[in-house]
Amino acid sequence: MSEALDLQGQTVVVLGGSSGIGLETARLARTHGADVILTARDPDRLRAAAADVGAQQVAPFDLTDLDRLDRFFGDLEAPIDHVLVTGPGPYYAPLAEMDFDLARRDVEHRLVGTLAIARAASARMRPPGTLLLIGGTGGRASGVGLTLISALSAALEALVASLAVELAPLRANVIAAGFVDTPLSAALLGDGLDDRRAALRAALPIGRVVGPADVAALAIHLMTNTALTGATYDIDGGQQLLSNRAGAR
Hints:
The chain is of the alpha/beta class. It has a single domain (11-237), classed as NAD(P)-binding Rossmann-like Domain (Rossmann fold). 43% of the residues lie in helices and 15% in strands. The protein contains 8 helices and 7 strands. It has a 7-stranded parallel β-sheet with strand order 3-2-1-4-5-6-7, sandwiched between helices. Strand 2 (35-40), helix 2 and strand 3 (57-60) form a beta-alpha-beta unit. Helix 1 (20-31) crosses helix 8 and helix 4 runs parallel beside helix 5 (147-166). The protein is globular and about 45 Å long. The protein starts with 10 loop residues before the first strand and ends in a 14-residue tail after the last strand.
């Protein structure tokens, strides 16, 4: 059975759309009738992703370049409806070993960068479109090495609640994911990826690992359900319910 074309006539922008959650969301948005615009840092991967999903437009640039970000949104020829913002992997480090240059870049990207995206994107968005931010659930735990990501996870939830008020009638929401089986996860875990998959399949209440398609389905729901704004929506397969949260990041 074909999907309802509930995004017909709408445009979805995916910032970080060349792989993983971003690419899968773009693919599903197209299935629901949307035009999609993709951005990513790597031009070759971006072109391949665009060909894969039939993207309307692409723009290769780094989201940390705020001037380029402003130009990207300012140069769009038509209004847009929804913006999905993926992000880099979390930075885990105990305080004694923390690289403050990396920590500063993480703060700037996740907070200042998100504010810049919200301002630039909202000027081109049509209500009741939504700004969707990809966050995580792992940072809610307390422990050595989690100081920075815990603070940033809490900050992102507070940030989106206020953005929902300030940008209204546009909407703003966070998708807080646990472990998702993406190329980024593979890069972070390396040789430990298969062990992590096996452990989660054995432990998670859903009996399987969460994949990009699961997150994409939630993203499309948040785009199409116009009653949802200012909130954080968890998708982790029940990961937070496990009594032993160590290693569940």
